[in-house]
Amino acid sequence: MADAWEVIGRALDVVRQETIGLGLSGARVLRMVDAQGVPVAVVKVVDHRMSHLVSELEAETARLAWLRRLGIPVPEVLGSGVDEGESWLAMRALPGCPASDQWPAGERDRVVDLLAHAARELHATSWEDTPFDRSLSSVLVEVRERVASGLVDRSWVIAGKEGPPAAVVLEELESLAGELGDGTPVVSHGDFCLPNVLIDETGAAGFVDVGRAGLADPHSDLADMTRSLRSHMNPQYGEASARRFLDTYGRDGIDPERLRLHDLLESFFWPVPEAHAPGG
């Protein structure tokens, strides 16, 4: 990390770095803070030997550039590289607090409404062409590869998931996908959960962790957020918040079967912790 500290830290008058505990990706995330205690940069670091994590870091770098060209509020890339066996990506810190923070009880409905409006605006973004196809048919190719490699079964075992193996569940997924089709493509976050949306003091939203962004069915983001709002990891929200999110987004055009499809799809992308990687 010496390269990132010297190149990025010195330019932004960084005086210390802090480890951020959010996220399940397997990446180490550092926050760089200036003398006034203001976060000025965020650095993601992965073991260079872990090819899937390096690929995810490279994917996020490319998507950040694309989303910024579309005018979407995502971090500016400050630099990237390989240092002492670690790949790193440094980004300018966005203002605001994660929606997953412990917002005062009286503000939580407002936060949910802001999330819904942010999703609507993101999905309404104009686009002409993109190299990032996240349509259902495209993602299913990746899902089949993950199942064949054993990565999905391994992630389910680690998470304590019970039930049939991934190859059997994949048959159900493909059957449902065949019935429903790809859907209408929009600009999609790809991992639209509470920790990945920052809300500033004006109510403006910014997006982080966009390594799976691309053109996709909007139900992908909607399923992600409703699942996040219902999660035991965010007990300050719950079922009522999930319903409010969908109501505020607009129930017209929301298909419950498509939400179920994308909930099922997400389970094929559960992370495998770093300690379980080969050589880890």
From TrEMBL:
<dbReference type="Pfam" id="PF01636">
    <property type="entry name" value="APH"/>
</dbReference>
<keyword id="KW-0067">ATP-binding</keyword>
<protein>
    <submittedName>
        <fullName>Phosphotransferase</fullName>
    </submittedName>
</protein>
<dbReference type="InterPro" id="IPR051678">
    <property type="entry name" value="AGP_Transferase"/>
</dbReference>
<keyword id="KW-0418">Kinase</keyword>
<dbReference type="GO" id="GO:0046677">
    <property type="term" value="P:response to antibiotic"/>
</dbReference>
<keyword id="KW-0046">Antibiotic resistance</keyword>
<feature type="binding site">
    <location>
        <position position="196"/>
    </location>
    <ligand>
        <name>Mg(2+)</name>
    </ligand>
</feature>
<comment type="similarity">
    <text>Belongs to the aminoglycoside phosphotransferase family.</text>
</comment>
<dbReference type="GO" id="GO:0005524">
    <property type="term" value="F:ATP binding"/>
</dbReference>
<keyword id="KW-0479">Metal-binding</keyword>
<feature type="binding site">
    <location>
        <position position="209"/>
    </location>
    <ligand>
        <name>Mg(2+)</name>
    </ligand>
</feature>
<feature type="domain" description="Aminoglycoside phosphotransferase">
    <location>
        <begin position="19"/>
        <end position="260"/>
    </location>
</feature>
<keyword id="KW-0460">Magnesium</keyword>
<dbReference type="GO" id="GO:0016301">
    <property type="term" value="F:kinase activity"/>
</dbReference>
<dbReference type="InterPro" id="IPR011009">
    <property type="entry name" value="Kinase-like_dom_sf"/>
</dbReference>
<dbReference type="GO" id="GO:0016773">
    <property type="term" value="F:phosphotransferase activity, alcohol group as acceptor"/>
</dbReference>
<keyword id="KW-0547">Nucleotide-binding</keyword>
<dbReference type="InterPro" id="IPR024165">
    <property type="entry name" value="Kan/Strep_kinase"/>
</dbReference>
<keyword id="KW-0808">Transferase</keyword>
<dbReference type="GO" id="GO:0046872">
    <property type="term" value="F:metal ion binding"/>
</dbReference>
<feature type="active site" description="Proton acceptor">
    <location>
        <position position="191"/>
    </location>
</feature>
<dbReference type="InterPro" id="IPR002575">
    <property type="entry name" value="Aminoglycoside_PTrfase"/>
</dbReference>
